[in-house]
Write a structure and sequence with these properties.
It comes from Aquisalimonas asiatica. By secondary structure, the protein is an alpha/beta fold. The protein is built from ten helices and ten strands. The chain has a six-stranded mixed sheet, sandwiched between helices. Strands 2-1-4-5 form a four-stranded antiparallel sheet, with helices on one face. The structure holds adenosine-5'-triphosphate. The site of adenosine-5'-triphosphate has 12 residues, from strand 2 and helix 1.
Length: 247
Amino acid sequence: TATQSVLTMSNVEVVYDKVFLAIKGVSLEVGQGQMVALLGGNGAGKSTTLKTISGLLAPERGEVTRGQVHFMGEDLAPLGPSQRVDRGLVHVLEGRRIFGHLTPEDNLLAAFSLKSDRRRYQQLRDQVYTYFPRLKERARTKAGYLSGGEQQMLAIGRALMTEPQLLMLDEPSLGLAPVLVEEIFSIIREINANEGVSVLLVEQNAAAALEIAHHAYLVENGHIVMTGEADVLRQNPDVQEFYLGGA
Ligand code: ATP
């Protein structure tokens, strides 16, 4: 492609418990400024793919990765998870792991690493509040009391505090009412368009993801079974039947 790639994965395999192949030769690419969706059902291998990229798999637990992952041209293999965050790669885990006993603002502060740079902190925090005004309105509420949608907003906001080049989102729509999914997805689209942040979006909700993504990969049983422009995939009869509920 003409656009420079931010992330390239080639022939990645992941083994759990030394014997189980969870992903079987996955290759994918995220171009600069692109929003790429990784779609598939339960257990297809989507979360495993993201964990491979963010460095959350642990060889000492028998979780072994083969193949190559490059981020901005750099081989990620020698880098630990926090070094990857420093490089601009951030992973919002499935299930929104926010600090429930802290306020939204303290959650944002906890995710900001240059504690001495108060001005930069305020700029980033205000940017998060611009995208998610609801978080500002709920500033005095402990995050554990926020609604599911608000917690998802906070999880994304925390990721933005690290000034990512690549934002990886694991099922941001999970458990949310359709109107909220629409709201959050349109904000993700805005962040991608306005901030130049590339996005890798993992979803079971293919219909919603294909509306905002530029490009998509379909994963089944640890393999990429189809890839293409989101608009083209939406018109594909097999995609319509198996991913879009026969729409
Ligand atoms: P989900 O949306 O349910 O998370 P997924 O597409 O993200 O689905 P993965 O979580 O990547 O799928 O799981 C891929 C396969 O690996 C599944 O068969 C799953 O049971 C298995 N698996 C996931 N995590 C582990 C683990 N820690 N140990 C052993 N097997 C695992």
